[in-house]
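Morning, I've got a small favour to ask if you have a moment. You're getting the sequence in one-letter code plus the fold written as tokens. Thanks so much in advance, here it is:

===
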Amino acid sequence: RRERQRFVDKNGRCNVQHGNLGGETSRYLSDLFTTLVDLKWRWNLLIFLLTYTVAWLVMASMWWGIAYLRGDLHRAHGDTYSPCVANVYNFPSAFLFFIETEATIGYGHRYITERCPEGIVLFLFQSLLGSVVDAFLIGCMFIKMSQPKKRAETLMFSHAAVISQRDDKLCLMFRVGNLRNSHMVSAQIRCKLIKSRQTPEGEFLPLDQCELDVGFGTGADQLFLVSPLTICHEINSESPFFCLSQRSLRSEQFEIVVILEGIVETTGKT
């Protein structure tokens, strides 16, 4: 049997592609920080490495350019001549001086002198730029590593939902469980029925969302997820499945999306 195209995959990824929006790229770039956090790890690491590599090369070239324009590359550095940066004779030495300054290593062999106002200005600019780049990229990597998305890997859902009798009522049921010892604080579960329908006015809604009651009125949707729990939707007169038979249920085109929300106890993030 050919598998149907899902609206939401089992891993929670939505199969939705945007198109013909206009200015989509500029909107993503205007919120660059969130765009970097949402990127996949391989692109995030590539941008991380390229940004630092380019910044290092550009700043090292600026230090080399100052030494070149002052003529420090071709003169002996000693008591008779005070260069802008001591012991910088070529591009590798300028690159090493920049790395020592940026990483605050301070070997002491290369140092800036007081007779170089342009070098002092470049030093201040380097310090400010380095702080901004570090805060932006390291903050992005930290937030990406601490995202609670992977916490969902230890939340187990049953592979199939069943319709059966419970308390003399016909119910749609499935199970959910938590594998970790750490709790999901304020865990709440919701169910959405995604199905196309046509309104009485003749309007066709291709992806209409309908709420399935899993105990909203009784508080059963607020979970104490310590042991595996069975989530129950009563098929009553208000349920969208009330008018379906067993045969029509197999032929209907719909999808049930289960949303489990909670606060991760170890990180405090939703």
Notes: Residues 151-264 form a domain with the Immunoglobulin-like fold (CATH 2.60.40.1400). The mean pLDDT is 87. The chain has two domains: 24-146, 151-264. The chain has six helices and eight strands.
